[in-house]
Amino acid sequence: MRARHGAWESRDGAVVDYRDPMTAPAEAPSTSHSPEPYAHWLPVRPRLVVASAFMLFLELALIRWTGSNIVHLSYFTNFVLLGSFLGIGLGFLRVGRTTRPPYYSPITLAVLVVIVLLFPVTVDRDTEGILHWTSLSTSGPPAWLILPIVFCAAAVILMGPAELVGRCFPELSRLDAYRYDLIGSLTGIALFTLLSFLNAPPVVWGAIAAIAYLVLLWPDTTPARLLLVVPALVVVGALALETATAGALWSPYYKVTNERFDVGGVPVLDVRVNGIPHQQTLPAEHRLQVERQYALPYERSVSAPRDVLIVGAGSGTDVAIALSRGAQRVDAVEIDPQLRRLGVEFHPDRPYDDPRVTTHITDGRAFLEQTAKKYDMILFALPDSLTLVSGASSLRLESYLFTAEAMRAARDHLKPGGTFSMYNYYRERWLVDRLASTVQAAFGHAPCVDVVSEAGQQAVITAGLTPADQRCGTPWAGPAADTPPPSDDDRPFLYLKDRTIPPIYVITLLLILAVSLLAVRVLAGPYSRMRPYGDLFLLGVGFLLLETKSVTGFALLFGTTWLVNAIVFAGVLVAVLAAVEVTRRFRTPPLPVMYGVLAGGLLLSWLVPNSWLLSLPVPLRAVIAVAVAFLPIFAANVVFAKRFADSANSTVAFGANLLGAMVGGCLEYLALLVGYRGLLIVAAVLYLGAFLLLPRKGAPAAT
């Protein structure tokens, strides 16, 4: 979910109706595409709530489900976001151009579901620049083909609900339309959040989508009903078949599948997430005999640990090993509740049943920042998320766990004589050196570095609180000359060796922009007509960057969990509504003054460092973070609402703003080069450009 400027900009579907007397010019301009009242059996207010909730719910469901079956999308989540946003914009532009119900939406959804289930994709793990923990072969269509297909399908699917929302606005006053649209949008977020909490499978999502289509599009004729019922049955049936055959558990992050078998009489549970091998549950003693990396943290520690923190506890093997090594208290941190559930039910050692173990379902970095406890040993035990944070183009669930600041936080939570250790299959030697250098910078001395296997760079990095608290085998030779510096909280891209945007991103983004340019040109008219609305174009670009900065900032401050993201998205919607209500109910300052407020908000965001916020108690941190993040968002939405109300041609103005929003979504990847804080500078330049392009009084109105 991405909120846009005012209501035209909110991806939940809230749009500015230029005919509303409270915000429109004295004489609203005429248009050849004025939408006519839409005859429907359901009254307009409940219809608007249902359509808005369905639009947002469908978008979130598409992001989650496609990412679980097309693994490329686990690393390119904002491609589906951009496709959804483009579709919503195009749906509004279609209002008034046709009176036919948008049956194309359920039909396209059915086709997409069938294609994705027939041609699933596993990620290409041999791509330099987009590093993953292990190496697997690629199956299914290549990224350059499947990603644009999904993008276009998402756009067409979301056009339907958006068109239905747009048809409601002419029938209501602007105040009523905004209120009911916001109620619907928040309902959509709440419903999907509830289903995530309940671990509901996609067949439930599909059933809700089918019911919504039937409620909103039920026709009067039998042939038309077939156009609606058949796709709905295909969607529900295909998703039910997927659930039954795969036996999957659906967590808020993954499609989790598992297989149980014996190896030499040893029971094994093999766990896969989104089709990728992820974990295996084995008895602790067997694991210690087979893979030396699990024993090395204890061998490199001078004293036997009694209090242990395990980040990435998963299905419980690392917890069982800690208990077998004499730990008296274990805090097991795992972000995914379904992985922990599998450990509770199937791990042969039953580690989670042990009274010495306390489980925390949360983000590892957030736990470190929020606990006051100290430990004899802290383990980062294979915390590889294999997915990105929803709403952020390049932020993985574990990205903030491997920064310089995170290593210092781990050091600060060690008792005297304590030890920190991390292990995984790092794939690249430069990645091992980068992490070892990060640990060295945080602890002030060289760590122990044990490369257990050159194949896959299976390595263990261990550091005592002091050099006397660790006992290394072969001393670490230090990083190679080409080792990149440690990643930090502003640019937490551990797996990106150079400051660059990987070619696969660039190619796919160019394809997205090409499709967007063509679609907006068809529905909004020649681009030359958009020239007077250059400021609206830049407002769309800038706001996308502001939202990205907010999402990533809250992920650092409060954790990369699905619940935090849902709260942030809902907060952005509330900020949009607040700006609109203030604009409607009160006499707001002139646009130059509001641009000044916006500039002040951007400056405040720049001046308040995350390190200071992280030092505050959580309640105070939340209050200040909300104020700092949402002040520029609020000001930007007031600017947009005031400017759009004075536009002479709403369709062309919206087309320009939509095109800007698409460009802004692509420019999110600039964070790979300049960091997330640098996005504030880019946004400030864009807003300055928008201010300079404001129409001057006395200038002829654009038509």
Automatic annotation (TrEMBL):
Q: Does the keyword Transmembrane apply?
A: yes
Q: Which UniProt keywords are listed? A: Membrane, Methyltransferase, Transferase, Transmembrane, Transmembrane helix
For this UniProt entry, what's an example GO CC term?
Answer: cytosol
Cited PANTHER family: SPERMIDINE SYNTHASE, SPERMIDINE/SPERMINE SYNTHASE
One matching Pfam family is Spermine_synth
Protein name, as recorded: Methyltransferase domain-containing protein
Q: Which domain of life is it from?
A: Bacteria
The cross-references to InterPro entries, in alphabetical order and at most eight, read: SAM-dependent_MTases_sf, Spermi_synthase
